[in-house]
Design a protein that fits this description.
This is Pentatricopeptide repeat-containing protein. This protein is mostly helical and about 375 residues long. The chain has 22 helices and no strands.
Length: about 375
């Protein structure tokens, strides 16, 4: 079982605890969203539900409302639920209603429902979690943490989902103290959390810059999937810790972790920054060996890496071999010629681009102008 709210207190000043527990930010009113692409089905469903008391049928109907963001039909279903004594206190249905209101940007309705339930019955962890994620979904991470603390103060033990929502809010708010408090709850409670929580906890420490703590979490994980590795690689790249990122990439290879295109796309720009040609070629090899085709974003990154490492011939081979090129593909190749001083090829490629019917943008002309450092080259371009 997760440790109770007292575990958090060493990590919070009295003022910050007061802020999180009692701060109440007024709700903004949002316009009603009624995207009724499935309105016919929903109309029929609501009519059918009026004669039923099966919770599963109501749950399915609310799923449909959520997927189509149909607040209008959701409110009709809510009315039917309130009229039915067997359903009005069903935590799963109430949770779905809170989710519906939040995806429709009606936090005021979600909060009203939550408070009505709070006054009439015991709130389950699922309901608290639904309200916390409603705040998070609508850009209110501070309110999300308030809900988390309120839940603990109500002696409701948080589940994995609640913990992950709280940690995500800590990342958004850059609240190191509270995040460490949540981690302490997990450790003191002695409860095994799921992989989602471990991944969020890892990202929390990485985003906050506590790489040693992040590594401890990483090393202690029972299972590490591609999402775990990608999180670590992405943050290391974003923080400019290229050496550690390359080291992690090597470890992924040693442990035979299946790469995703996202992993490789993240690593390639770092190869460009530090002229890591050998690592870039290794990634190229991974792309060639893959049974399925790489996406355009990855191939563009591969071209960019070769160009910035001075291997413009390799970049051009990749460009010519692309079955599908977007504007970025042309711009990357033009920039590769520009930074390597090959203006003749750059102008030739630009002519080819125009003949192919591709509309240049501002980035295209910046690449062209950057390659023309003397008057002679500028005259060639001006034609």
């Amino acid at each position: 079982m997760i440790a109770d709210v007292t575990t958090l207190q060493p990590y919070l000043t009295s003022q910050s605890l007061t802020n999180y527990k009692f701060l109440r930010i007024p709700f903004r009113q949002h316009p009603t969203h009624t995207f009724l692409s499935k309105s016919t089905n929903l109309d029929e469903t609501v009519t059918t539900l009026s004669n039923l008391s099966n919770p599963e049928r109501f749950t399915d109907a609310l799923h449909l409302c959520i997927s189509s963001k149909s607040l209008h039909h959701g409110q009709k279903i809510h009315t039917l639920i309130l009229k039915n004594p067997k359903l009005r206190h069903d935590p799963k249905l109430l949770s779905k209603l809170i989710t519906l209101f939040s995806v429709c940007r009606r936090l005021d309705l979600a909060r009203k429902l939550f408070n009505d339930v709070k006054d009439s019955t015991f709130l389950t962890e699922k309901l608290w979690a639904s309200m916390a994620i409603a705040y998070s979904r609508n850009g209110s991470p501070r309110e999300s943490l308030i809900a988390y603390v309120d839940m603990l103060c109500s002696f409701v033990a948080p589940g994995d989902f609640s913990i992950s929502v709280a940690l995500k809010a800590c990342v958004e708010l850059k609240d190191v103290r509270f995040g460490r408090g949540v981690h302490a709850q997990i450790v003191k409670g002695g409860r095994k959390v799921d992989q989602v929580v471990e991944n969020v906890l890892l990202r929390f420490y990485m985003e906050m810059g506590f790489f040693e703590d992040a590594r401890k979490v990483f090393d202690g994980m029972s299972e590490r999937n591609v999402v775990t590795w990608n999180s670590l690689v992405s943050v290391l790249s974003g923080k400019g810790r290229v050496k550690e990122m390359f080291s992690l990439f090597r470890k992924m290879q040693e442990e035979r972790i299946g790469f995703s295109w996202a992993t490789l796309t993240t690593i390639l720009p770092a190869c460009s920054r530090v002229a890591g040609l050998m690592t870039g070629k290794e990634i190229h090899g991974q792309v060639v060996k893959a049974s399925e085709g790489a996406d355009v974003l990855l191939v563009n990154s591969l071209m960019d890496m070769y160009g910035k490492c001075g291997e413009v011939v390799y970049a051009r081979r990749i460009f010519d071999g692309m079955l599908s090129k977007d504007l970025t593909s042309w711009n990357v190749m033009l920039n590769s010629y520009a930074i390597n001083g090959d203006v003749e090829e750059e102008i030739s490629l630009f002519d080819m681009m125009i003949e192919s019917g591709v509309e240049p943008d501002g980035i295209t002309f910046v690449a062209l102008l950057s390659g023309c450092s003397d008057t002679g080259r500028s005259k060639k371009l001006s034609r």
